[in-house]
């Protein structure tokens, strides 16, 4: 079934999708050489290398989504509350800000400012659009899940901004990091419950779409996510082994990305709504979690260099 869709999918991919793919690739084209040139990749050990990739996993989808603000500006503008004037102007403005933030974080220029403004942007999305949308229909679990996803998207850069502020405002940085930790812990624990309840739906961020039957082990990925989310979410909530918990949580989401969303992205590679948005959202969620991991304290080491509790 999967091979049928892959071979029969249109060869010609819409320009909107091409621009999205190009923006996504551009972030890695800038970010990876910068990471290597600064020596950070060489110095990192073990799972810390994965944490280093967190900003790229987060901002590459941000760059991808920025293209929609220009190509589908009318559709984006329609989502803005009616009492805000000049909807189209705001759609373009946010798109331009996403491009600037992605390039800033990829090139590691003014990172703290870019991260703080990204966090503010997503929290404003929650306050102005997602929360009112859910309150309008409180029984709609999809709206609630989407609101929590936007909170997670805001918590990630908040954690990054905190990690870059310890030498500048240590008290404020610690408080911001703890806020990000609590927000992501709450999101992850709720998602754990949802994925047990709706195991036939796509894992990672539980929404309304069913996992395609041709995905290998399609039903069990939700159970895998639910278990990992429950354990790591509890550790984050109770402030225990937070860096390890966030790192392994990010790794688990990446495994789901490769096993579930990458095949979906290949099959529906010409579709923004059915393919592109799904795998980009999930990768961005993994990136947000890894940004939190980078803001959490590393385990202390003894004089011999071994980690101690």
Helix and strand layout, with pairings?
Layout: H1 2-8, H2 15-37, H3 40-43, H4 48-71, H5 73-77, H6 87-107, H7 111-136, H8 141-163, H9 170-197, H10 220-237, H11 242-267, H12 272-295, E1 300-301, E2 307-308
Antiparallel strand pairs: 1-2
Helix pairs in contact: 2-4, 2-6, 4-6, 4-12, 6-7, 7-8, 8-9, 8-12, 9-10, 10-11, 11-12
Description:
By secondary structure, the protein is mainly α. The protein has one domain (13-297). It has helices at 2-8, 15-37, 40-43, 48-71, 73-77, 87-107, 111-136, 141-163, 170-197, 220-237, 242-267, 272-295; strands at 300-301, 307-308. It has a two-stranded antiparallel sheet with strand order 1-2. Helix 4 (48-71) runs antiparallel to helix 12 (272-295), helix 8 packs across helix 12 and helix 9 (170-197) runs antiparallel to helix 10 (220-237). The radius of gyration is 19 Å and the shape is globular.
Shape: globular
Mean pLDDT: 91
| Strand residues, percent | under 5%
Largest sheet: 2 strands, antiparallel
Gyration radius (Cα, Å) is 19 Å
Uncertain regions spanning at least 5 consecutive residues: 1-11, 302-309
Structural class: mainly alpha
Order of helices and strands: HHHHHHHHHHHHEE
Helicity, in percent? over 70%
In total, the number of strands is 2
How many individual helices? Answer: 12
Number of domains: 1
Distance between the termini: 50 Å
Strand order of the largest sheet: 1-2
